[in-house]
Amino acid sequence: MKRIFIFSMLFLISFITNSQNLKYRSVDYYFSILKKAEIKESQDRGLLDGNLNIAKKYKKKAENGLNQAGQDLYLNIKMNLLKTYFKDYLYQQHINYKNETYVLYFSMAGFDDTEWCILKWKRGKWKNLERIDKQLVENVRNKKDESANFNFVCFNYDEGPKNIDGIKIFVKKHYLIMQRGGLYHSLIDLERDKILINEESPMHASNSKNKTEMNIWIKKNLHDKIDKIIQ
Predict the structure, then answer these.
(1) Do residues 184 and 125 both lie within one domain?
(2) What superkingdom heads the lineage (predicted)?
(3) Cβ count within 10 A of residue 108
(4) 150, part of any domain
């Protein structure tokens, strides 16, 4: 845990150092950082050797896989890193519209659920925050913290099948749109400050068995409706 804490602090310091000119960051950007940390921690904990091979004590006999002790150690490493990196929402993108700044943040929950939120600041008040505390966001969302200088806009997440490619927010006319996996997921009327279309959990709403079924539902019930409004 001590090594994880130290590595987390170095990660946070690097964030602060490079926070002057924030540019778009994909989900893969964060997954790449997490993967490097996972390899380093696996070496530090003795799961992998210097050549990235499974250590003998954690290797299945006659197989290139983890034995039960190795699986338990890997799960412990993975869960601790996930808790460390994704205790906050992480920056993906921001855009300005009139007197306000809208920021898209990404995080993970549990072992592999992915989640996004859009937050809003008065223009000039957002200070290039590369991460923001999840509990603070939740408090603002539930109107339990009136001292925060931002407003909650919307939230959605994926569990099971995921649309994590090509994630972005953009403005067309007076609408803010969130797009994931080539499909529109959310529509906010910026003039009325109102969510018009957003499904927090497309997987649950569609009762889908796989990603193909889910995306068919998203296209019909979210994307096509949003596309019609913004044309």
Answers:
(1) yes
(2) Bacteria
(3) 20
(4) yes
Domain that holds residue 161: 91-230
**How far separated are the first and last CA of the chain, in Å rounded?**
52
107 found inside a domain: yes
128 confidence band (pLDDT: 50, 70, 90):
very high
> Do 125 and 76 have their domain in common?
no
Which H or E run includes 171? strand 168-172
**Among 85, 103, 134, residue at a domain's last position:** 85
Centroid of chain to Cα 18: 19
- DSSP state string for 83-152: HHHTTEEEEEEEEEETTEEEEEEEEEETTTEEEEEEEEEETTT----SEEEHHHHHHHHTT--SS-SEEE
Long-range contacts of 18-24 (CB under 8 A, 24+ apart): 19/128, 19/129, 19/130, 20/128, 22/91, 22/94, 22/128, 22/130, 24/92, 24/93, 24/168
Domain end residue (candidates: 85, 120, 139): 85
Question: Which residues are within 8 A (CB) of 11 and not within 5 positions of it... i.e. 6 or more apart?
Answer: 33, 37, 85
Looking at the structure, do residues 189 and 219 belong to the same domain, yes or no? yes
CA angle 206, 210, 211 (to 5 degrees): 85
Q: Is 102 part of any domain?
A: yes
What's the burial of 120, exposed, middle or buried (CB within 10 Å: 0-12/13-18/19+)?
buried
In a domain, residue 195? The reply is: yes
